[in-house]
Design a protein that fits this description.
The protein is of the alpha/beta class and about 400 residues long. The chain has 13 helices and nine strands. Strands 1, 2, 3, 5, 6, 7 and 9 form a seven-stranded mixed beta sheet that branches. The longest helix has 28 residues. The radius of gyration is 26 Å and the shape is elongated.
């Protein structure tokens, strides 16, 4: 009997040790241990509390003496333990709200200013005759809002004006452009990298998305112009958008109040950019705004300069060209990341940490005029046009 009791106690201890090890791993894996001093809000602390409850409950269930007197305690402990474990994945995203806390629709720039062959348009022009000129069978283009000036300029440079029809250059947005290329309704789209869901949709539809890098851009984080914070570290960005840090005082601005961390819709180019920055760290769900008037129906570029209690507490993100040229907000500023500004020079030399490629994406290997077009974009002449559009060439 003594030996049996020893074995049982060893098994109980092993269960507790296993639960504690798993709990420690999860807290370490999602950076709750290393970033504990930066957790400044209840939503950010809930995952820690749930792990502690789950581990403590498991240990109590392993050691409790089961009899009628302790039946209620055992049942309650089992329920709390199971509930804590079940809620942990939800807590990682702070996903406690039934509806989205704010409207993600909004204003956008007038892209007709970049329309190919429109008199007086803003499209970039080469200082030389294009080495490629297509007189028909034009590849149908589509893409991201921020990249419309690029593929509009490409079309105006390469497509014959006399044979050109507006249907050759569509504009929907990143989300719908991916849907269109997957459905075979476009020949090439110009976008940032695809989200996990977009890749899954392509695989499900039997589409082979081929990504050809054609230029470089900076994914930037923005704050109000009056915000005294001039830059953030990569770790601070991850802490904010994983829900650990929610107050500006944690970042050095004692009078900033709560961080209003705006986000974009799932599948948009900028939201995919954020997910890329976060890597394997879950992105916290948008949290309720302190005042509904802060939401409005504006774009993130306008929301970034909202005022609340005398300060500009918002944080957001975009791509450099869009924020700097297409739809600038004079009351917003781009932040340094790890002390490096998103300048053209720092994008070109790769020192800005969130330098990303943008792509010409096809459904399958490019063929015919689509291949000719992409090959030309990658040529020195095509790369010069990319640079004239305001983006960084590949080399």
């Amino acid at each position: 009997m003594k030996a049996k009791k020893i074995v049982i106690n060893i098994a109980r201890a092993a269960v507790c040790a296993g639960a504690a090890a798993l709990g420690f791993y999860l807290l370490w894996r999602y950076e709750y241990i290393t970033q504990a001093p930066q957790i400044d809000n209840i939503v950010g602390a809930i995952p820690i509390a749930l792990i502690i409850l789950a581990v403590a409950g498991t240990c109590l269930l392993a050691w409790i003496k089961y009899d009628k007197k302790r039946a209620a305690l055992a049942v309650a402990t089992a329920v709390i333990t199971a509930l804590s474990a079940a809620l942990f994945p939800n807590a990682l995203r702070g996903n406690w709200w039934i509806k989205s806390p704010y409207d993600t629709r909004g204003d956008s720039p007038d892209i007709t200013a970049y329309q190919p062959f429109k008199e007086g348009n803003k499209t970039a022009k080469l200082d030389e005759v294009s080495a490629l000129k297509l007189s028909g069978d034009f590849p149908v283009m589509d893409g991201a809002l921020a990249l419309y000036p690029v593929y509009a300029a490409i079309a105006e440079t390469v497509y014959d004006k006399g044979a050109f029809t507006p249907e050759s250059v569509a504009f929907t947005n990143t989300l719908r452009a991916y849907e269109a290329i997957i459905a075979g309704e476009r020949d090439v789209i110009f976008v940032a990298s695809a989200s996990a869901k977009q890749r899954e949709a392509a695989e499900k539809a039997g589409a082979e998305l081929v990504f050809t890098p054609i230029g470089k851009e900076a994914f930037v984080f923005l704050a109000g112009a009056e915000n005294p914070i001039e830059g953030l570290s990569y770790t601070q960005i991850r802490n904010i958008y994983s829900g650990k840090t929610a107050k500006w005082r944690t970042l050095g601005w004692k009078d900033g109040g709560d961080i209003i961390a705006f986000q974009r819709p799932e599948g948009s180019g900028s939201q995919t950019g954020l997910q890329s920055v976060m890597g394997d760290m879950p992105v916290v769900s948008p949290q309720p705004l302190p005042d509904k008037s802060l939401a409005g129906s504006n774009s993130l570029m306008k929301q970034i300069s909202v005022r609340y209690k005398g300060v500009q507490p918002a944080l957001g993100y975009s791509y450099r060209y869009f924020a700097n040229t297409m739809f600038p907000n004079p009351e917003a500023k781009m932040l340094k990341i790890n002390g490096v500004a998103p300048s053209a020079e720092n994008i070109a030399n790769g020192s800005y940490p969130f330098t990303v490629n943008f792509y010409a994406v096809t459904n399958g290997k490019p063929e015919g005029n689509t291949k000719l077009l992409i090959d030309w974009i990658l040529s020195p002449q095509g790369q010069r046009l990319i640079e004239k559009c305001g983006y960084s060439p590949l080399n």
